Amino acid sequence: MLGGMYPRSMLHRAAGGVSRRFDEYYRCYPVVMLPGPERENVNHGGKVILPPSALDKLTRLHITYPMLFELINGNAGKMTHAGVLEFIAEEGKIYLPYWIMQTLSLDPGDLLQIMSTDLPSGSFIKLQAQSTNFLDISDPKAVLENAFRNFSCLTRGDIFTFTYNDQTFEMAVLETKPGTAKNGAISVLETDLEVDFAPPVGYEEPKRVSGTSTPRSGAGGLPSGGMMHNAGTMAQAINYASIAPQSNTAAAGAKAVSSNFLHGGHKLKGSKAPTPKASTPVAGVSTNPPHPAAPRPRTNGPQPLRLPPGKLFFGYEIKPVKKDGENKENEEDTKPHFQGQGQTLRGGTKKSADADTEGKGKGKSKEAEDPKAGGGQKLEGGRTLRDTPR
Predict the structure, then answer these.
(1) Most-buried pick from 30, 70, 234, 288 (CB within 10 A)?
(2) What pTM value is reported for the model?
(3) Could you count the other beta carbons within 10 Å of the beta carbon of residue 20?
């Protein structure tokens, strides 16, 4: 009768048996029900909170750090492992992270068996994210190293949780090494742990599209490379030879580039639309107007840059722009110098050499004609003294 009400280990202790391991039963509750402020790091970790009496018993049993425990739900036949964080719970109660309660299929107030154990240090662990959101983390290694600070041990088959950037991530433990303990449990304290990742749940490998294609036979096939325009290179597509700066057919090139205003004109005065003719319905022939033909792709305007592999297009030629200072210097160099007319000191215009020689010739002729006219001396004021006979 008693064997159905209580576990066999409790009956063994009641009969006077002495256990060398810590083995107790507590009522389990989630960490969010712990009195005091909310402790998110405890809820997303791998450590439990026990009552102070558990510490006294562990001390008497000479169980030293690290204190690791087996958590056993006998009713569901499930087991996992955890460490201890503090001894501040009420007597008879144990507070667990919520993911441990889900792993053991526990409800608040259920009875849980706690047993001390020793676990080997882990050397390898393989994890699988339960959502593709884990791929958004830029540095998963650093994030997991920070998350493992809240764990003492892990068990194969556990699905633990951790937080990052206000998001909660679930991670399943697929494989552990050395895996000699029950359920492949390992200790993650003070060990060099190699971590491997399996593809997240729901992840699909992206389809790879080759950047090159095999040349196909026929006129409609793409050339080698698969991305080149049908008209050829970019220079050919935009008719670069006609619109280049050194081209002599700039007008023809502009006409080739733009297709606007190339159609025939229509007169506004006196133009009348043709009167539609009445048509008799014919059996088997639709009376709906024919569908307009599909627009032909433009081949005379700017085209997208689609070049074959190994070819580059660097644009138009560059002509250096002349600066304002250079233009002024060139103009000053081309101006002629010393083109003004000379002036005498008295303000009169300087006569040319021909006029001077002509005047001297006239003066000599006058003296020859008039012998009385002697060489006078000119005084200031305009009067001239001549030699008069005495």
Answers:
(1) 70
(2) 0.50
(3) 9
